Batch of 2 targets.
Target 1
Amino acid sequence: MTNEHIPFLDLVTVHRELQDELVEVLTTTLKNAGFIGGPMVQGFEKDFERFCEARFCVGLASGTDALRFALIAIGVKSGDIVVTVPNTFIATTEAISQAGARPDFVDIDPRTYTMDPGKLREYIEHTCKWNAKTRQVIHNATGKPVTAVVPVHLYGQMADMDPILDLATQYNLKVVEDACQAQGAEYFSQKDNRWHRAGSMGHAAAFSFYPGKNLGACGEAGAMTTNDEQLAQTCRLLRDHGQSKKYFHDIEGYNGRLDAIQAGFLRVKLRHLEKWNEQRREAAERYDKLFAGAERLVTTPHQPSWARSVYHLYVVQVEDRARLQQKLSDVGIGTGIHYPVALHLTKAYEGLGFKTGDFSVAEKAAAHILSLPMFPGLTVDQQRRVVTEVLKSHSITTTVS
């Protein structure tokens, strides 16, 4: 077993393998000068909506734009409350705030790290009251309407969507999937008796194509998917200064366009995504087997029967995370933490008035989670070395086979 450096994420190899196709995209765009919009963007949108099993896709400049525009398009207004989880990247709550709403939280399931539907029901039925006349959920403490829910499909695994969607139907709430880490993830709906792709179940969904994602651009990019034609059209207006055609502005919008070069890169890479996702699943299964017998020391990811994760990240829980992370770094193994501070306790949201203990499951996770190397092409030998070093840090003498 060598002492080679094992990166947390390898973004070099995939681009080396696809270099000729990616350069062709760049060359074509330079020749026709079609840098904004046009056939390359439209082609990617068609390909990605088919991939997600959604009717419409709108290419955008980032995942944050995708979530913000989706919330605006579904009718979220200034002063509304939108409910999400505290264990996510801040872009989730930034999009809520920038749409004019106030973010609020429910805790996560301790095994999946995604929204706990039972906590969502508890929030609606005990923190709020139902106004039958206006068909609105009203937050007791603020008197503001709760209008939407943003379940986050975290680390490559979808949230438990059936009960979330049932609650949304019962209480007239819109659901926007934060699918920024879940391109290709699937959920088995007992209600529909079939598998659904991330981005096809809510009123709308947001995807990020930040370079490190399973489907990553060579820069910033995102997309919104929906089965609602009007929502798609509204997001098309929002991304382009509200223009229905050049210099004719139906609404006040933003500059959130997906540029053609990134769309072309994404279209090339999308053809490989199923293979890459399967490689991630195989790597996750190997990690699970290699860690078998060490459950007291390392909590590995849990995949429920209703989920097909795409393992954007392979996240474990350990007791002394800082010590383990340093020891892995010392022997050349890259790791990450996603995320070290639950959002309700971050400085940016001090004004919301939350305190330690409000969302104990998310807080515990934030203190103990560690993301191990995960990427297509991760080898068996590399994984054996990662696991050996993790167990060695706990003073376990073992042979990882």
Target 2
Amino acid sequence: MRDVTKGKGLATERAYWLAWSRIKDVGPVTIKRLWEHFGALATAWQAPANALLSVDGIGLLIAEKIVSQRPKLDPEKLLVQHEAENQSFWTPADPDYPALLFAINDPPPLLYYRGHLRLNSLTHASAGGPLTVGIVGTRRPSMYGRRWTQRLSSTLARKGAIIISGLAAGIDTEAHTSCLRQDGLTVAVLGTGVDVVYPQRNQGLYGQIAQHGLILSEYPDGTAPDKTHFPRRNRIIAGLSRALLVTEAPARSGALITARLANDYCREVYALPCALDNSQGEGCLRLINEGAQMILGEQMLAIALEALPPDAVTTLPQQSNPLVGSSPSELPDLTATMPELSPLLTQVLNAVTLEPAVLDQIVQAAQVDTGSVLGALVELELSGLVIQLPGMQYQRA
């Protein structure tokens, strides 16, 4: 990892994740792009305006705002002050920052936490990491919605899955509570500071999760509930989840936002069917109509989740990342430690870069006809060497 900090190491890079989050008009998407482009946020902090313009999404106006704001911030002093004001938080430069969450395009630059659960330290036989399952839905569930949420959460918890939800009333509460009753692990993602319990009646549940699981939020300590926070909170639930279950949701529901975000992040989305005259479940029927997988029972669902393909390996910023910024011709031969590939597969794999590329770019780089490239990409994806993204884009795993 390129670093202008002259040996100050990861603690300094942690300070720059915090500092970049304080730059006005620079959000999580742009911050991650800066890290991808420069290899370290400390390096990006020193970049002149013309270098910033090479980052996707940064135009002249944003570049000028960045250059004008940086001199007013001292990253190291800012970190000391922030650590004094907030009990516990991670940045992507910290080894405990959830790797699966960092894989999304807009991971929170700061993640506040309570609890002792560390997702990166857990393993799952089929996925290379913990089987994390998000369960979301309406705050006013019917008895049918409550019953099936309890059954699904209990079954998955017994099988070792980690249940992710939002500590809200209704479906969230049922998912967390049922998991804990099976002595399972659960993560609550809040739209408040991690020291603020909302709704208040979940104070006892909050205490159990903090003791046996994990409480997360991208908002600093003391942040009160705000209706604008919860839709953004939903992307963290989706990002932490290998699969997302919507057990009951009306036509207008935050759970549907979470489901669509999960789909954008290439997660598996499942929905529980209901009666046509159950307005509380109308959103689930719409999701199924749009392509979400139908939940047909707890055992069938558990088997399907156990069979999920392995996750792509996500490199966190604290790990060595010498490939960032490399051109395709500079990429090392990643097939050296892989089983021998056919000449065609090798040729197509060498045309796929770490950055997402559309099919036409890969065809041009490989100099092979489109049909052969598509067939090769399918084989490479099944081998875990290539990832397909929405919009017929591909990148190396």
